[in-house]
Write a structure and sequence with these properties.
This protein is an alpha+beta fold. It contains 8 helices and 8 strands; from the N terminus they run H-E-E-E-E-E-E-E-H-H-H-H-E-H-H-H.
Length: 321
């Protein structure tokens, strides 16, 4: 009786194990390789799958999602014999689980070595300056070579990125000095342009100011000349309207003589010849005031004497100041 119970228990355990091996659940975005007696049979896709227990064996489960693999820095020699360290990042995806399992032993290692060799071939045909400025070109060339080589492995390389390109320390120092010199040069050029623009604007302002000032002075002189002309016309019209005689003009002429001789710098002044005529006219005016001339004036007593009007000289010697 006890032996039967033990056999039943063993049978239940074996059935349970068989059920476990028969039912295979594959997660989404995954695949599994099934072998029968060591030979590839089929690929299990996502979901519930049934296999023959103890005959079919699930050998490998493959992740079908896109993978990101960073590779360590690799020393690469450029065309101008400079060693640069380049970090690369590969974005790949398994498209054929069977090929990724049987066509290559380790596709990660194979992709890494292929990336290094291809990168050395590409960078070897470029100088340092082109290497630093041609990342897109390097990425496209590297992706084309990797995608073609990994196609038979069931791998699709979606993207290749150069994460960092590190030139030697001495080259980095030289590049920093060159960059600093270029920035100083641009700053000096910008400062000179600013000074030049400021001087141009200042000159334009001074030019406009001089033009406006000249226009103002011209208008002021024109208005002043117009005013003086109007004053002269007014005086001229007033004189002609008053009809002055010779006596009044002679008196005005004598009043202007002191103003002609004013000034400390006048060491020589010339008496015009018309002053004699003016004095004669003034003397005639004074004769009208004497008693014998029928005027209202007279002397204090005695016989009136005619006024003696000397004739002034034409020119006098200079006076010492």
């Amino acid at each position: 009786m006890d032996a039967i119970i033990i056999v039943l228990i063993i049978l239940v355990v074996l059935v349970f194990i068989a059920l476990i091996k028969t039912i295979q659940v594959i997660p989404q975005a995954s695949a599994a390789i099934v072998e029968r007696f060591g030979r590839y049979t089929r690929t299990l896709n996502a979901g519930l799958n049934i296999v023959v227990p103890f005959i079919d064996t699930v050998r490998n489960r493959v992740d079908l999602r896109e993978q990101v693999v960073p590779f360590p820095p690799q020393p690469v020699i450029t065309q101008d014999n400079l060693v640069v360290n380049i970090d690369t990042v590969i974005y790949y995806q398994v498209t054929d689980a069977r090929a990724a399992t049987y066509e290559v032993a380790s596709y990660i290692q194979a992709i890494e070595q292929l990336t290094v060799t291809t990168l050395r071939n590409i960078i070897g045909g470029m100088d340092l300056e082109r290497t630093l400025t041609s990342r897109e070109e390097i990425n496209a060339a590297l992706r084309g070579v990797l995608d073609e080589a990994t196609g038979k492995w069931g791998i699709r390389v979606n993207r290749v990125e150069l994460k960092a390109i590190e030139p030697p320390t001495s080259i980095q120092d030289s590049m920093e000095k060159q960059m600093r010199a270029d920035r100083d040069k641009r700053a000096a050029i910008l400062q000179a342009e600013g000074v030049r623009q400021s001087q141009i604007l200042t000159a334009e302002g001074e030019k406009q100011s001089a033009i406006l000032r000249a226009e103002g002075e011209s208008r002021s002189a024109a208005l002043r000349a117009e005013g003086e002309a109007q004053a002269i016309r007014t005086v001229f019209e007033s004189i002609h309207a008053g009809d002055p005689d010779q006596k009044l003009l002679s008196y005005q002429y004598l009043q202007m003589l002191p103003k002609i001789a004013e000034g400390d710098a006048n060491k020589l002044w010339i008496v015009p010849s018309e002053i004699g005529d003016a004095l004669k006219g003034l003397g005639g005016a004074l004769d009208n005031f004497r008693p014998d001339s029928g005027g209202n004036g007279g002397t204090r007593g005695g016989t009136p004497t005619p006024p003696s009007v000397p004739k002034p000289p034409r020119e006098q010697p200079p006076l010492d100041s």
